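Worked Example 4.2. Consider the chain below.
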Amino acid sequence: METAKALEEHRFLERMVGVWDVTASEMTGDQQWTEIVRSLHGIWFVAEGNGEMPGGGAATTMLTLGYNAAKGKYVGSWIGSMMDHMWVYEGDVSADGKVLSLYTRGPDFQTQGAEQDYREQIIFADDDHRTFNSSAKQPDGSWKQFMEAHYTRKP
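Applying the procedure from the previous section yields the following structure tokens:
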């Protein structure tokens, strides 16, 4: 197997590397979270988030992102200590290079035992500010956002 080489698509993810303050009222209430993003030789990017859940209790999240050249897609996964579902992503970047849209399938939080399609987006305002949002696919094919987190790079 040939060693993977960092492509322009991988360099897009480099913007995430660093330490970030995170606020997400729907997810964390008034609690401040911290996320540390590191690069695995420019091919994979790992983001570990830590904070307190509303109502108490420490929580940790782990996001992995990379680019699969054979698929021509960004790929990744997300796990959190507050749930037992692993979210697996496939997605692409907008033409303007500011939005990474990641698509996944997971539990429908409204209907026990059912699954639903989701879209998560990482939106870069600039090198020091980004947003992460989650939306559920509606029966008419539209996306309804239910969560938004704001990230500010720590100096």
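The chain has a mean pLDDT of 93. The helical segments are 8-13, 25-28. Compare this with Example 4.1 before moving on.
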